[in-house]
Amino acid sequence: MEKNVAEAEIEAWVKIDEGVFRLRHSSPRGMMGYSPYLLIDGNEAALIDPGASIHSSEIFDAIGKLIPPDRISLMIAHHQDPDICGAIPELSKLGVSAPIALHWRTSTLAVYYGISGPFYLVNENKWEWTFSSGRKLKFIPAPYCHFAGSIMTWDEKTGILFSGDLFGALSDVGETFADASYHEPMKAFHEHYMPSREILAPVMDSILSLDIKQIAPQHGKVIREDVRGCVMELRSLRCGSYLGNTEAVNVCRSPYSEKDESLIVERLIARLALLFGRERTRLALERIKGTGEGGKAMGLSDFLAALVATQGPRWFSVIEPYLYSLLDEFRVALPDYIRQTAEIPIPEPLSDSGTPGQYARDRNTGLWDGSAFRKRLGSVLAERDGKEFALIYFSVDNLEEINQLHGRHAGDDAIRGLAYLAQNASTDPGWSAYKLAAPYVAVIADGFGKEATRSTVERIRYEAAEAKFSTERLTVSAGILYGDALRAQAEANGANNQEEIPNAADKLLLARLFSARRNASGGICDVLTDGASDYYLKKRILLVEPDDSYVRFLEPLFAAKGYFLVTVPDGASVDMNRAEEIPDIVVAEAMTPRMGGFDLRRQMLNSVRGKRIPFILISRRKDEEFIKRARDLGIVYFLKKPFSKTELIGLVDNLIGAT
User: Fold this and answer.
1) What CA dihedral angle connects 529, 530, 532 and 533, to 10 degrees?
2) What angle do CA 621, 627, 632 make, to 5 degrees?
3) Residue 159 and residue 157: Cα distance in Å, rounded?
4) Within its chain, how far is the Cα of 61 from the centroid?
């Protein structure tokens, strides 16, 4: 039976939930401790990540303070590292005769610790373990995080995810529970120990649906607050030991200022303070400043050189991956210090090969940006020898709804999910994906025919609808422009250089995308006439006005500004649930024969699509009663007739802008 908890906590164990205890051990060098966990279920228990060989006797004695060691029915090894498996042989000799739960890949290396106990291979046992009480532990694969056979353990009863190295931190264990300052050491740990975002993100996706109350990592602190936020933070984290040397190490030559470098230095100092402590960092900064020239502000390269000179290479090593992320964020060129000291040659910008080496990656998706898309398109056009190609624009049609209902993090997840599908839809080297400045993902399908392109796009849309990249399933539309159509349009419009043709392609792709988005469930558009292209590219104004004189007064004004005007005498015929009728803005008369502006606005507020459309109320009557009714319906813009045409046009331009 479980012993007195208060007594146990004083001697080593900390209770993190009913029957769940954490044993802290500090690192011999003080940077990164580790924590075995003991989960007690009635008269048996599971020892999770048993510990290092140098602590085996201490761990055995600590177990005896809570439960007789022979009552342990399972030991769990999340991977094969010595701080997990090292203690197992000695614990077995001392009397812990339980099987060891681990992945088969881990078992092939664990034997070299001299482990003699039986292996319980989780991948051959339905990824679960059942206690005699019927309580189940579920095992979750976490391949290559950071070992091929890494797993996590999920206890549904307590809602605790025992995560192994995942969610660990590059700091000593310290206090039991994480606070807001834990995020930076956590990110630093993963930047070094996890191979890449492409490996880490799918593992984070696999646990999003779990009702996690606590995350209990082997290194670091127990996470109780903002659990989902931590998952999402790691899901989008750029990481990997060679982070700076494999992704062109930000060799872009975009203009940047000394202020950008100063901001990077400030962020690096903040990270160092969280990793090494504020006092040690303060003393380090005093030594660094002493290497400067008469108090002159120190640039980034000089700061890095001084950091290594005064503190040694380790201080630089722990922030190196974070530095590369900051360089990408601020689009700052690689500092001279790194170029001069790099162990691996730094690639120079590529110019005419079509590879976007000199361009930046989008921070959210990791894809190359719109400038790289245009560069690659120019190369494809220049190399044409009759080979087919296609261009594709993708959008998440329900992105705004996701943002409104669940926040911008969920919207970022949605874009990241679409980017992942687009990027991995084909292994053909001619298939390349890019993230545009607008919330669209572009693809160049070089060497792809019409049938192959369309079937691949259909598959992406299907997978987006089925996968759970975000809290909502994604509705994805696509506009496709085939190479022969682009060439024909370019010739017809006299576009004949590498600047004009990409501009023409952008216009044609947007028109097709907007046409596809008119379908409520998303769609694909790969054919569109010139007139239809103009129609879909123009912003649509819905004018609810029974007075023909006002309609005749406003029509030429909106047409001259490039807007497409739709007029109805009252709001009764407007259906915001029909995609083809959704305008970019509504201008409505307050008083009409059947449904006036107030009732139309009320109806729009009950529609997910309708409530986000800008609304302008117009009326000859603008008294206290009408102003109050407008305010109650959230109507901000209310013009009294007769109004200035300049005032209305200016308001529309500010709210939606002409194409």
Assistant:
1) 120
2) 135
3) 6
4) 44
Strands 431-435 and 389-396: unpaired
Q: Characterize the bridge pairing of strands 389-396 and 540-544.
A: unpaired
Could you give the CA distance from residue 539 to residue 584 in angstroms, rounded to a whole number?
6
d(CA 567, CA 555): 9
CB-based contacts of 67-70 (< 8 A; 24+ apart in sequence): 67/1, 67/2, 67/3, 67/38, 67/40, 69/94, 69/95, 69/96, 70/95, 70/96, 70/97
**What is the CB neighbour count within 10 angstroms for residue 581?**
15
DSSP string, 278-303: HHHHHHHHHHHHTTSSTTPPPPHHHH
pLDDT tens digits along 534-591: 666 667 889 998 887 788 888 888 877 878 788 888 888 776 655 445 788 999 999 9
Asked whether the whole model's pTM tops 0.70, one would answer: no
Tokens 């040690």 identify what position?
Answer: 280
Tokens 């009950």 belong to residue:
606
CA distances 221 to 2, 75, 162, 172, 506, Å, are 24, 21, 11, 9, 49
| Rg of the chain taking only CA atoms, in angstroms | 31
Question: pLDDT per residue over 351-408, tens digit each?
Answer: 334 344 456 677 778 888 888 888 888 888 877 566 789 999 999 988 877 876 777 7
Rounded distance between C-alpha atoms, residue 145 and residue 150, angstroms: 6
Residues 6 or more apart whose Cβ sits within 8 Å of residue 147: 79, 80, 81, 105, 106
Residue 238: strand, helix, or coil:
coil
Beta 100-102 vs 119-121: how paired, if at all?
parallel
Is residue 32 pLDDT above 80, yes or no?
Answer: no
How far is residue 477's CA from residue 306's CA, in Å, rounded to a whole number? 52
Cα 329-330-336 angle, rounded to 5 deg: 110
Phi, psi angles (nearest 5°) of residue 48:
-105, 125
Domains and CATH numbers, the chain: 5-178+185-235 (3.60.15.10), 243-341 (no CATH), 370-535 (3.30.70.270), 538-655 (3.40.50.2300)
C-beta separation of 16 from 22 below 8 A: yes
- What pLDDT is stored for residue 296 in this prediction? 54
Q: Does residue 596 have a pLDDT over 80?
A: yes
Closest by Cα among 57, 68, 3, 70 to 25: 57
In Å, how far from its chain's centre is CA 301?
30
The Cα 635–Cα 629 span in angstroms is 9
What is d(CA 213, CA 177) in angstroms, rounded to the nearest whole number? 13
Report how far residue 624's alpha carbon sits from residue 142's, in angstroms, rounded to the nearest whole number: 63
Compute the mean pLDDT over every residue in the chain, rounded to the nearest whole number: 82
Q: How far is CA 559 from CA 508, 587, 613, 647, in A?
A: 21, 15, 20, 16
Contact at 8 Å (CB) between 588 and 600?
Answer: yes
| CA atoms of 77 and 85, how far apart (whole Å) | 7
